[in-house]
Structures are given as C-alpha cells and as structure tokens.
Amino acid sequence: MANFVAIQRYESSSESGDEMEIDQQDIQEKKQVRRKIVWIKDNIFSDDNEFQIAIKQEKQWSLYYTSKGHDGIKVHYRCNQVHFRGKQCNAAIISTLSK
Question: Looking at 1-91, which runs of residues are DSSP E strands?
C-alpha cells in the first residue's frame, strides 16, 4: 500500500492570473484595410497565345493564382514591381478562358 502525506495548501504571492487578463486587454490589433478592386476591360485577345506573348513582353506581371468557375478558367496576374509577401500593388490582370 502507498502511504500518502498531507501537505499545506499553496497560495501564490502574485496574482499572475489577473495580470494575464490585463495584458490581453491592452493588446490592440491593427485593422487591415481591404483593397477595393475596380476592373476595367482594356484589351481583348483572340487567343490565349496572343495574351501570353503580350504579358511576357511587358515583363511586369507574374502569375498569382488560377480559379475554375462556371464561366470558365480565370488566371490572375499580379504586378511584380513589389515583393510577393509585401503589400501588393493595386494593379492586377485577369484572363478569362472559356470552357
């Protein structure tokens, strides 16, 4: 059989639980402002190859992401004048490819 010994109840001298609650209240998060995007139809290309050539000649656009929807495949390009992980430029291009 195991022998158990009774010990005195421990009480902390500091109120660390209350301090943690105060610290959480003092932290304020910055609100991130979302970009408002206004799309303008600039050029219409007859085929995808013509569009790809125009993008490569400008040397300003990088592939960002591709999405598939009921209206076709949308390829999003971002301005590569800024770093990928930094705040993005407001300029963007979307290429819509019909099914």
Answer: 61-69, 72-79
